[in-house]
Amino acid sequence: AAAHDGAAATEPFPLAELRLRRVLRESARDKAVFLHGEVRGGGGEGTDAVVILEKTPFQEEKVLELLKKHTKLELQMRNDIYSTYHLYPPPELSEIKTTVVYPATEKHLQKYLRQEVRLIRETWEDYKNITLPFIQSQSFSIQWVYNILEKKAEADRIIHENPDPCNGFVLVPDFKWNQNQVCLLLLPWKRSCLSEGNPEEMPLNDSSEAVAKRFGVPGSQLRVYLHYQPSYYHLHVHFTALGYDAPGSSVERAHLLADVIDNLAMDSMYYQKRALTFALRADELLLKKFQEAGRV
Amino acid sequence: AAAHDGAAATEPFPLAELRLRRVLRESARDKAVFLHGEVRGGGGEGTDAVVILEKTPFQEEKVLELLKKHTKLELQMRNDIYSTYHLYPPPELSEIKTTVVYPATEKHLQKYLRQEVRLIRETWEDYKNITLPFIQSQSFSIQWVYNILEKKAEADRIIHENPDPCNGFVLVPDFKWNQNQVCLLLLPWKRSCLSEGNPEEMPLNDSSEAVAKRFGVPGSQLRVYLHYQPSYYHLHVHFTALGYDAPGSSVERAHLLADVIDNLAMDSMYYQKRALTFALRADELLLKKFQEAGRV
Fold first, then answer.
1. What does the mean pLDDT of chain A come to?
2. Do B98 and A87 touch (CB under 8 A)?
3. pLDDT single digits (tens) A54-90
4. Which residues neighbour B89 within 8 Å (Cβ) at sequence distance 6 or greater?
5. Chain B residues within an 8 Å CB radius of A82
6. Interface of A with B in 242-261 (CB under 8 A)
7. What ipTM describes this predicted complex?
8. Cβ–Cβ of A15/B67 closer than 8 Å?
9. Known catalytic residue at A236
């Protein structure tokens, strides 16, 4: 191992000699792939490595060069005024960002390994018989939420608060927050779960104004939504800038707060009547519960 | 115009001679760039073109080749077990998907130009008084849709079809389709608009099975949805792999087909009672109509 460490610190990573064990995960949207590889030492013993390849964004100043210097242009399809091609650029104009974790442990491999994901269509019966008992059986710790509400943590990050003991709330940046993105949570004081919450009572205008004031993003440019399934069971709302294509704002997970409020105003039993779709990873216990119940 | 049409139909697009006018938009997340270019004719007159360059997802079967055949590997950063490099692949392993709209009108240029975006909450009254008259007043050309339905274009790309004159449909890859993503459209033969369409009559199982069979993606891993507002007014459905974080699958635009069907089954007047949220760019005429009506 000492020999490996020494080698890793001084020599370039031997990419061309890497033995490819498997593809851990790929992202078609991000144009990235996560690989599990193995480097063979002099004695024939293998050491694991994670190699992440990601295509890079176009650089504005190099686009013209790309158009001029392509090595080949192959027509794929033509229809009316639209056509598509494959363009093959010279190497210097198509760099790939390569990240190496070496030596990699089993934990690194698990971190990047893709889990299969599948959609569940949960009826109200499913919620009562499978999901709710599952949630109640788990002792998910949401101490960090109470820490915020009780100002034992992140007190200096609070953007806005309404101290009403019944309908009050606190507005704080999300962990994943980045300057231009505006991910925020609104945490009502009431210790309620989504299914029992009353989103229609939430002071939406009040909080949108606070976000607008703090970050200079007008309310009409804010995506305001709940997650189902949420990542923790204390009613909370996400705010993201419309211009930011936020992960977690997909139709199979996000529910616009305005839609939820309208649905409940139209029919207070709406969510008892309508099935809801969400995605579960293959290793999630809730999926196993749906399988045991013969529902997937 | 006749000369353009003839040229466009037979010759490859003269990419290397393109004069770059400006970058309309770029997406660092998607590794895509949208260009406004100009093609000079023999007489010196210019014709506008939109050229979209998008890096392609990695193909699993070619990853090993990429590791072996890279032309150069440059170290960028090293810290403990982590290091990053720039890898320069040979041309044949770094294709760029190129989409050309030529000749392009001012409308096409505007479509791809980056614009500020804002949310609209459209009530049924708004739809009747603002949106519907607007759609009817526009003469959007959807000739390319009819070309597909009448097999004048893309006939060899059809994945599945149901020839029923009333509820029949055609399943074809989307323009934006890439090998691992499964973006598809389902185009019903009936020349209907979303608001007048009857999604509940769509043979969803039939088409999901066809997609599953062709691409090896099970139905439980398909995100099946409509867009509102759609990009063209002929009822169509999007299919994307759940693992692919597809643009256009955001909660402010996508509506799961299963939700739409359930809502209509619960109350056939559901969409006449409920407001719908969608985003409009600052330059869209429909936004101006909402502004004139004092609704935003």
1. 84
2. yes
3. 999 898 889 999 999 888 899 988 889 999 999 999 9
4. A91, A94, A96, B66, B69, B70, B71
5. 99-101, 144, 175
6. 242-243, 245, 247, 249-252, 254-256, 258-259
7. 0.72
8. yes
9. yes
CATH of domain A117-292: 3.30.428.10
Say whether pLDDT at B227 is over 90: yes
Query: Could you read off the pLDDT of A195-231 as tens digits, one per residue?
Result: 444 555 555 667 777 777 777 788 889 899 999 998 8
Residue A34 forms contact with B (CB below 8 Å): no
Asked if B259's CB is within 8 angstroms of A256's CB, the reply is no
- The CATH number of the structural domain formed by B115-292 is 3.30.428.10
Query: Contacts of residue B252 in chain A, CB cutoff 8 Å?
Result: 223, 242, 249, 256
The yes or no reply on domain A1-56+97-114 and CATH 3.30.200.40 is: yes
Output the pLDDT for position B187.
Answer: 77
| Nearest CB to A35 within list B27, B63, B274 | B63
pLDDT digits (tens, 9 = 90+) for A237-295: 888 888 777 778 999 999 999 999 899 889 989 999 999 999 998 888 999 999 999 99
Q: Where are the beta strands (DSSP E) in B70-153?
A: 72-79, 82-88, 96-101, 117-122
**Chain B residue numbers touching A275 (CB-CB < 8 A):** 258, 262
Partner-chain contact A29 B247, CB within 8 Å: yes
Instruction: Look at residue B197 and tell me whether its pLDDT is greater than 60.
Output: no
Domains of chain B, residue spans: 2-101, 115-292
Does the distance separating the beta carbons of A88 and B96 come in below 8 Å?
A: yes
Question: For domain B2-101, which CATH number applies: 3.30.200.40, 1.10.3720.10, 3.40.1440.10, 3.40.50.12160?
Answer: 3.30.200.40
Write out chain A residues lying below 8 Å of B266, CB-based. 273-274
